Amino acid sequence: MDEMDNKTKTIFMWIGSMAIFLSIFFMFIMPLMKPWWAEQTGKSEFSRADQNRKITVLEATAKKEASIQLAQAEVERAKGVAEANRIIGESLKGNEDYLRYLWIVDVAGKDIDKTIVYVPTETNIPILEAGRLSGTKNKVV
Q: How many structural domains comprise the chain?
């Protein structure tokens, strides 16, 4: 039994020592650690804010570079369209008959019931057939 009492005493001594140590820790050491802990928390918050700022700046820079590239691509596309228009315009100069043909084919190619196509004369004045239009539902193009 003495052996059991010794083990019990040892356990109670350890428990008592731990209780005294924890009391001293919470009474004296913990208050001393609070400023250090707050400083470490502040450093962590500052580091996080700095990292977020850097990320925001990098995202804005990427958006700016992307918009510059898109604008340059749009300029190049417009140059291509302008060149194509110039080539088409030069090829159509002096080809009034061909343009008139394209216009007729475009209009005639549309499947519209009872369509009357008026072709302009040399003076660009269409020949009107007013008698044919009266009382009908013909569509003039």
A: 1
Range of the domain at 138: 94-141
Residue 82 lies in a domain: no
Which residues on adjacent β-strands are paired with residue 140?
116
Q: Which residues of 102-115 are buried (b: 16+ CB within 10 A; e: fewer)?
A: eeeeeeeeeeeeee
Question: Does an H or E element contain 82, and which?
Answer: helix 30-92
The pair of structure tokens assigned to 57 is 């700046």
Asked whether residue 87 carries a pLDDT value surpassing 80, the answer given is yes
Which is more confidently placed, 102 or 55?
55
Place of tokens 């100069």: 93
Taking the C-alpha atoms of residue 129 and residue 121, their distance in angstroms, rounded to an integer, is: 14
User: Is 8 a member of any domain?
Assistant: no
119 close to 126: Cβ distance less than 8 angstroms? yes
Is 74 within a domain? no
